[in-house]
Amino acid sequence: MEESLKKEPLLSSTTQLRVILLLLPIALTMCMYFFFTWNELQVVPIFEKLTPQKQLAEIQQHFDMAIPEPLLPIYMAAEEKYHVPWTLLAAHHRIETRFSTLKSLISPVGATGHMQFMPCTFVGWQHPTCSGLGKGNIPQEELTNPAAIKKYGGYGIDGNGDGVADPYNMEDAIFSAAHYLAKNGAADGKIEQAVFQYNHSDEYVEKVLEHFMMYNEYHDEMRAIVLAKTTK
Predict the structure, then answer these.
(1) Of 28, 92, 145, 170, most Cβ neighbours within 10 A?
(2) What stretches pass through the bilayer (predicted)?
(3) What rounded mean pLDDT belongs to the chain?
(4) Rounded CA separation 92/210 (Å)
(5) Rg of the Cα trace of the chain?
């Protein structure tokens, strides 16, 4: 009987062990790479996974007071018309009346409405009763009449197209604020100058700009979210 031929291993046991030890770190590295790649695919950027409503809520957590959602399209429509950042309008609204949550929308000096216009600024300083701080003695039918506002050089705007420019109507007030800020430089990028014209107080300017910069970090994201919600 022929003796079976014993096949010698291609690699000695010592060499095999060395190869295994050499390949082990590579195998571990590949495992870790695939694990983290898979994990990254599971953690899709949060704004892609969340609904627009939740996206908005996530952003609002960065603010000291949430911007009321129904106001966002109004700010943005005013931005489109007057080229004033909607975030600046929101900042003014936050500082002036805490987004209209104050018990009274009449200030001690006579500023009125959601965005706190002095009556003479709203209807125009050419009105015969306007002087001093601008409280005036303006009949309601003149204060809210677009024709009278045009006549006296005021900033009041009929934002909702109902034929009345009312500082107590949200759209009218926000559009009027945008109009005022635009005329005083905000549409040309002179934000600080425009804010100072709105209220001649360095402290006021500082507060408005602080909120403006905070909101402005999310200017485009929030605009995209609102657009997505309104086009559904």
Answers:
(1) 92
(2) 20-38
(3) 88
(4) 11
(5) 32
Residues 70 and 24 placed together within one structural domain of the fold: no
Residue 141: both structure tokens together: 């039918």
- Domain residues for the domain of 16 are 10-43
The DSSP element (H or E) to which 219 belongs, if any, is: helix 219-230
Indicate if 120 and 18 belong to the same structural domain.
no
- State the DSSP H helix or E strand holding residue 47, giving kind and residue range, or none if neither: helix 46-49
Number of separate domains in the chain: 2
Q: How many CA atoms lie within 13 A of 5 on its CB side?
A: 3
How many residues does the structure list for the chain? 232
Q: What is the C-alpha to C-alpha distance for residues 205 and 198, in angstroms, rounded to an integer? A: 9
- Please report, for residues 16, 17, 24, 25, the alpha-carbon distance to residue 13 in angstroms, rounded to integers and kept in the order given: 5, 6, 16, 19
Q: Is residue 4 part of a domain?
A: no
The residues that bridge with 117 in the sheet, in sequence order, are: 112
- CA-nearest of 178, 174, 149 to 139 is 149
Q: What is the mean pLDDT of residues 140-158?
A: 98
Q: Is 22 helix (H, G, I), strand (E, B) or coil?
A: helix
- Number of Cβ atoms within 10 Å of the Cβ of 170: 19
Based on the fold, state whether residues 70 and 28 are members of the same structural domain: no
Q: Is residue 49 assigned to a domain?
A: no
For the stretch 4-51, pLDDT in tens is: 455 555 556 666 666 666 666 776 677 666 665 555 545 445 445 568
Rounded to an integer, what distance in angstroms lies between the CA atom of residue 113 and that of residue 91?
16
Cα–Cα dist 218/192, whole Å: 20
